[in-house]
Design a protein that fits this description.
Shape: globular
Order of helices and strands: EHHEEH
Strand content: 15-25%
Radius of gyration: 12 Å
Number of strands: 3
Number of domains: 1
Helix content: 40-55%
Bound molecules: zinc ion
Largest sheet: 3 strands, antiparallel
Distance between the termini: 33 Å
Strand order of the largest sheet: 1-3-2
Length: 69
């Protein structure tokens, strides 16, 4: 199953590399989004797990922003 909002696999926690691949940005940008608090994530050891719900919210907010005239 694939999420219809962001295109990522339909699981609760996503790898930074997965998010970067689906948003077509690099992992650095994803980590910056996490640090700015734009998306929620938890740190598991050395790696971040991105909260899928919060990513979907971010994608929705952004598409609204970009579709405004
Ligand atoms: Zn999603």
């Amino acid at each position: 199953m694939v999420c219809r909002i962001c295109g990522c696999p339909d699981v609760k926690w996503l790898l930074v590399s997965t998010v970067a691949g689906h948003l077509e940005c690099n992992p650095k940008s994803v980590r910056r989004m996490i640090k700015r608090g734009e998306i929620d994530a938890v740190r598991v050891g050395r790696h971040w797990r991105v909260d899928h719900d919060s990513l979907d919210d971010y994608v929705r907010r952004d598409s609204v922003r970009f579709s405004e005239p």
